[in-house]
């Protein structure tokens, strides 16, 4: 089943991705069995209880408990999928990484209709934010007078991450509920106003050249940050782009962003 689904699934680029794909495959097997089984049962009922053979209505109905046994079996299978597969897979990306020292923390704040990204500078500490400083040129309200904020890097709709390094995305929202979705990383999490939700994962695959922004835009092959939650009239255009770099490429990108900060950086 999974080999069949892989024709349509995006590439799997995270350490926990195989568990997610395994769960998707098992769920499709269950849905296929239910669809075929109930369809055959429906055809049987149409034939078995056709009007020509049952001119008088029966008010007692079938006394067999066969359908009840099937329903119990479906519930048992669903419980196994939930407890044995879904919850362990979910636990992998809500449990903090063991090696926190090497973990890259990135803050992502959703708003109508963009993704705002903040990286801590060389000090590894996020700078202070002030709601009074929020404007079109500073959507995060970053207070550059704070010593810890002077070297922070911010982007809009652009997320850059290194391969083979644990990542923690600190996810929140400025206005309504959004859903942060990285298909190739098998990551999807609601961003909720008033909450900062950590999402933990580890990229294990660099972005192919044909999926790197901006060259990918013409062929529509980009790795996109999608909003998977209807969040307003502009929901359709709330998308960003993410790229998984080699360690050297990521360091070069970070150095370039720091250089753009000027003397304050």
Produce a short descriptive summary:
By secondary structure, this protein is of the alpha+beta class.
Question: What do these coordinates show?
Answer:
With 265 residues, the chain is an alpha+beta fold. Helices cover 29% and strands 21% of the residues. It is built from four helices and ten strands. Strands 3-2-1-5-8 form a five-stranded mixed beta sheet. Strand 6 and strand 7 form a beta hairpin. Helix 2 (17-48) runs antiparallel to helix 3. The longest helix is centred in the first third of the chain and has 32 residues, at 17-48. It is elongated, with a radius of gyration of 25 Å. The N and C termini lie far apart (52 Å). The mean pLDDT is 89.
Number of beta strands: 10
Class derived from helix and strand content = alpha+beta
Radius of gyration: 25 Å
Strand order of the largest sheet: 3-2-1-5-8
User: CA-to-CA gap between the ends?
Assistant: 52 Å
Low-confidence stretches: none
Shape: elongated
Q: What is the helix/strand order? A: HHHEEEEEEEEEEH
**Oligomeric assembly:** single chain
Helical residues, percent: 25-40%
Query: Approximately what portion of the residues adopt beta-strand conformation?
Result: 15-25%
Average pLDDT, all residues: 89
Biggest sheet: strands, sense, closure?
5 strands, mixed
Total count of helical runs of at least 4 residues: 4
């Amino acid at each position: 089943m999974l080999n069949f689904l892989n024709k349509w699934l995006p590439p799997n680029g995270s350490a926990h991705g195989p568990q997610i794909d395994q769960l998707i495959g098992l769920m499709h097997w269950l849905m296929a069995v239910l669809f075929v089984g109930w369809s055959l049962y429906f055809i049987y009922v149409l034939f078995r209880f056709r009007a020509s053979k049952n001119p008088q209505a029966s008010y007692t109905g079938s006394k067999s408990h066969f359908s009840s046994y099937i329903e119990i079996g479906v519930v048992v299978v669903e419980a196994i999928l939930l407890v044995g597969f879904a919850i362990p897979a979910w636990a992998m990306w809500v449990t903090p990484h063991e090696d926190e020292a090497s973990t890259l923390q990135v803050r992502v704040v959703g708003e109508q209709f963009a993704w705002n990204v903040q990286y801590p500078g060389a000090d590894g500490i996020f700078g202070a934010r002030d709601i009074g400083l929020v404007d079109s040129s500073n959507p995060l309200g970053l207070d550059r007078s704070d010593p810890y904020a002077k070297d922070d890097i911010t982007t809009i709709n652009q997320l850059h991450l290194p391969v083979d390094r644990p990542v923690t995305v600190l996810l929140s929202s400025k206005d309504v509920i959004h859903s942060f979705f990285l298909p190739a990383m098998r990551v999807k999490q609601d961003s909720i106003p008033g909450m900062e939700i950590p999402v933990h994962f580890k990229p294990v695959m660099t972005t192919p050249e044909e999926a790197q922004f901006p060259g990918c835009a013409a062929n529509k092959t980009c790795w996109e940050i999608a909003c998977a939650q209807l969040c307003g009239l502009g929901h359709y255009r709330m998308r960003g782009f993410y790229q998984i770099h080699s360690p050297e490429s990521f360091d070069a990108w970070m150095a370039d962003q720091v250089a753009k900060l000027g003397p304050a950086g």
